[in-house]
Amino acid sequence: MFLAKAATKSQEGRRQLKCQLRNYSLQYLQSRRIIVACMTKTRATTFPDHNRLIAPVLQFFRPDQSIMEWSAPACSITVLILVSFLPLRASDDRLLPSKPLSPGATIVSDGGDFALGFFSPSNSSTTPAKLYLGIWYNGIPELTVVWVANRETPATNTTNSSSAPTLSLTNTSSLVLSDGGRVLWTTTPETDVAAAPATAVLLNSGNLVLRSANGTTLWQSFDHPTDTLLPDMKMAIKQGARAAGQRLVSWKAPGDPSPGRFSYGGDPATSLQIFLWEGTRPVYRSAPWTGYRVKSEYQFQTSNTSAVTIYLAVVDNNGGGESYTTFSVSDGAWKTRYVLAYSGELQIRSWNASSSAWAVPGQWPTWACDRYGYCGPNGYCDETAAPTTPACKCLDGFEPARGEEWDNGNFSAGCRRKEALRGCGDGFVALPGMKPPDGFALVEEDKSLAECAAECSSNCSCVAYAYANLSSGTSKGGIARCLVWAGELVDTGKLGSSPASDTLYLRLAGLDAAHGTRSKNNEVKFGLPILGISVLILGCIFLAWLNFRGKKRNQGKHKKVTVDGSSELEFPLVRFEEVALATQNFSEKCMIGQGGFGKVYKGTLGGQQIAVKRLSRDSQQGTNEFTNEVILIAKLQHKNLVRLLGCCGEADEKLLIYEYLPNKSLDATLFDDSRKHLLVG
């Protein structure tokens, strides 16, 4: 009031008063951003990003000529005096040592995208209710928590307000979450600083940062993720001086933020790839880092808005010995995050404001054969088979270890070599577009491709190698990485032209070590014996066929029979099947006679009509009588007598085969009743 009365005594005082009131109003409206500008002969001052709030105030002061003639020095001094008496209001995006955070209160980031406070999972059914300190998306109707401080030690003292849980900032620059005097969670500053007042600020990126008075970052929540990866958040692959690598750890259940079964993070053994684990068992593995994904771009087109573009990057910080992956989204894109679901999938989720739901444009593992080791040792998942489902295949030079199981979709036994390796002389075949297998050894020194190949070739136990030039940075003075494998190749894939793909050089038997082609010497060395064996086998088969054919022919040749111990007679033997076929299986319609010895049948054998005498089983004639008859008929061969064409004596059958006489026998002519009168005269 003293300053106001003094200013009214003169025209200059009135100008100063108006300037004071004008700036006081602006300072009050902006609270945390005091912008004062008194400009001679200027009617307005520009306040970026606050024009909508400032416009009514500027309109209240209608400029006139007197105001246009402000005295800038006097105005500035007066405003500084006024500001020194104004009460400063605590910001709502930070935690101060004198102002702890209690249930029901929140800290909201400067841009309003995130909030820090206490929450109880909406679908939790535990009694008493459990309270967690966390960060969630602000302004989204569905509670979506992205970070939890005390996920293993929830607060349960929620009924007694005097001992309710609180988050405090101590004088030693630490955040402490306590529940009725019991410490549930606390931070440990990662930078040694002298004890001094610090501030915890919730940034609009969702990162809770603990800063010292001079602006040094003492601790930040982005270095201690739970199950979510936010834009600009680093997922460390190699931690450098830090004791342990970062991992995303899933919730135990939708209503239980405590650590679940699944985790996702950098491979502690190689620092070149990222794993998804179930406990200690790997579920999914990314391709080893080849320098890809540096400012690479992935787009997911949504149904009713423009594409969400995700920029992934892998950064190698040489000075700190640290490698990490991070991502950002395009301007105007939906709120997007990576989250490790409690069911074990790493998902990309984008908030669809029109449907008020989280869309899932991508997740991993995508296919069944994406899962770790699904195709078995020395098998690989061919992801280039789209649009069909990717399938398991064997690497070049390999075949299914168990063919029947492989055909039925069980690939656990994997593949085996078609030809065993012979030693260091075997060459390598290049397989481009591959996801290299797990279980490699990293050759740390900076090497060229030729040196990497020599590293593997000189080691007879080395079965494959891969090389990449890490264009995004250097590691330990090198710009390349050389990977070598010994033993079985597990969790291999084929990615095609993907920037994540690599060329795998696989050692195969019989390849020329210098050119990676089949050796001509090997072709001659192994081809000639195979050809000789093939000719020998074919010759044996041919001889066996000739022998068999000769036996068949011999069955129809004449058999020599000795008569009276001196003479030999030859007559053909005929197979019983041939005789049966010639007489229509001894059909009654083919029978032309019958006697005490048996029946006589007419037939055709070899184009010639025959008469077959079949000895009846009831006949008293035995083998000796049958043989004697054969010999007798054979001796009586004459041009005017019926000729014996052959015989058959198989098993119990005894058959005589004669030529057929169409004019019947001589007795039919001599004793025919119709011709008797000719003989009698």
Q: Do you know the CATH architecture of the largest domain?
A: Orthogonal Prism
Question: What general outline do the C-alpha atoms trace?
Answer: elongated
* CATH top level label of the largest domain: Mainly Beta
The number of distinct β-strands equals 40
Compute the average pLDDT: 75
The separation of the N and C termini measures 186 Å
Helix/strand class: alpha+beta
Structural domains: how many: 6
How is the biggest beta sheet arranged?
8 strands, mixed
Strand content: 25-35%
Strand order of the largest sheet: 25-24-32-28-33-30-31-29
Low-confidence stretches: 1-90, 301-306, 472-477, 556-567
What is Rg? Answer: 51 Å
Number of helices: 11
CATH fold group of the largest domain: Agglutinin, subunit A
- Superfamily (CATH H level) name of the largest domain: Bulb-type lectin domain
* Share of helix, binned: 10-25%
Catalytic activity: L-threonyl-[protein] + ATP = O-phospho-L-threonyl-[protein] + ADP + H(+); L-seryl-[protein] + ATP = O-phospho-L-seryl-[protein] + ADP + H(+)
Domain Bulb-type lectin: 92-223
Domain Protein kinase: 586-681
Membrane topology: Single-pass type I membrane protein
